[in-house]
Amino acid sequence: MSFEYASVSKALMISLAMASIVVGVFDVKHYFQLQLVPHLSKYHQYWRLALHNFAFANSSDLFLAELILFQDGIQVERCFGSLKFASFILVSTLLSTLLEFISLLLFHRVGLNHLSSGPLALVFSILYQYSRIVPPMYEFKVFGIAFSNKSFMYALALQLAVARLPGSGAAALIGILAGQIYRSDLINLKSYRLGPIIVGLSARYLSPLLGFNRPPRRSNRAFPDASRRATGSRQVSQNDEVVTTARPTTGSTNSRIRPTAAAGAGGNSVVRDWVQGLTGRGDGTTAGVRIPPDSEITELTNMFPDISREAIIGALQRRPETHFSNSRNVEGAVETLLSSQIS
Q1: In this structure, what are the phi and psi dihedrals at residue 305, rounded to the nearest 5 degrees?
Q2: Contact (CB, 8 A) for 73 and 162
Q3: 183 with 126: CB under 8 angstroms?
Q4: Can you give the pTM of this predicted structure?
Q5: How far apart are CA 114 and CA 33, in angstroms?
Q6: Cα separation of 24 and 60, whole Å?
Q7: Which string of b and e fits 27-42 if b means at least 16 CB within 10 Å?
Q8: Under a CB-based contact definition with an 8 Å cutoff, are residues 161 and 168 in contact?
Q9: What is the rounded CA–CA span in Å between residue 246 and residue 82?
Q10: Which residues lie below 8 Å from residue 335, measured CB to CB, with a gap of 6+?
């Protein structure tokens, strides 16, 4: 899988990884923690609601999130389109941030005082879209339980959700809820798109930083001669057979068949001549049929001028060929012809 038609997913993964690494290197993880008490209730540090979504606090959560984004985010972006997917990320992040604040206010009395660092809610919101949009490629059963290729992603997501309970579990549920709200389009969120100014600035300044997103294209020709590949020559001689994985056109098919057929005809003719030299058969013969020489045919024609040439050849072909002399073949053919005349 590549990042073709998934530039937003690539930018999200790169920025998330770089931010998490920078936060860990400079030891500023404590600024990305979100707790109701004392951060919000006592010190009123509401900027933590937005800041805690930019970086993960540990490498294990970052690794699992990157795997999920690589498998799910790319396919969701290809279904949505880059513009809609970028708008979905913004809407889902804002909606999940609001739901996180409400959840801390409602459930802090039952032990929910903090939420895990990182965009867990966004990851699970993308995962929800993936589960609803992308169909499974194959299914299998283990001990009678049905699974699909999407089950592996769900297993990784479950591990990420239970890693830092109760904060990670609450963030996962909030992300799934945000994905449901976006997909249900209760408040017309699906129609929102980023402004043309933001899109233009991103295409002008951010796209060059992402590099080339298309996978490397492999050549559809293979040359059997290694020296020709080393020199970089692209000229194919007439005797070389071109092997290609591309769908051939009519002209290319004919041009590829002619040299191969000619080579096959030449090789078959050599083998046929060699076999004929060993067996004494000429062109157009089949195995087990003797072709009499012209001397025998002429001799019998002089002896039986009233009999056709085909009958004489048939009589000679009925007699087995000997390695000592051809006289026995002629004598046997004479006996055959005489018996046929008498009868």
Answers
A1: -70, -20
A2: no
A3: no
A4: 0.64
A5: 8
A6: 13
A7: eeeeebbbbbeebbee
A8: yes
A9: 30
A10: none
**How many helical (H) and strand (E) elements, i.e. helices and strands, does the chain have?**
15, 4
What is the 3-class SS of 51-104, one letter each residue?
HCCCCCCCHHHHHHHHHHHHHHHHHHHHHHCHHHHHHHHHHHHHHHHHHHHHHH
Range with the poorest average pLDDT among 35-39, 70-74, 279-283, 290-294: 279-283
Q: How many residues does the chain have?
A: 343
pLDDT at 244: 46
Q: Which residues contact 102 (CB under 8 A, 6 or more apart)?
A: none
pLDDT digits (tens, 9 = 90+) for 69-92: 999 999 999 999 999 999 999 999
pLDDT number for residue 210: 85
13 φ/ψ sector (left φ>0, alpha ψ -120 to 50, else beta): alpha
**How many C-beta atoms surround the C-beta of residue 90 within 10 A?**
14
Contact yes or no for 234/258 (Cβ under 8 A): no
Q: What span, in angstroms and rounded, lies between the C-alpha atoms of 46 and 234? A: 64
How many CB atoms are closer than 10 A to CB 264? 10
Range 97-101, long-range pairs (CB < 8 A, 24+ positions): 97/49, 97/50, 97/53, 97/121, 99/174, 99/177, 99/178, 100/34, 100/49, 100/170, 100/171, 100/174, 101/40, 101/49
- Asked if residue 224 has a cis previous peptide bond (ω within 30° of 0), the answer is no
Strand, helix or coil at 142? strand
Type of residue numbered 207: S
Provide the β-strand partners of residue 142.
Answer: 145
* pLDDT tier at 130, thresholds 50, 70, 90: very high
Q: Which two tokens stand for residue 309?
A: 């040439």
DSSP string, 4-27: TT-HHHHHHHHHHHHHHHHHHHTT
Backbone angles phi, psi at 163, to 5 degrees: -70, -40
The phi and psi torsions of 115 (rounded to 5 degrees) equal -125, 145
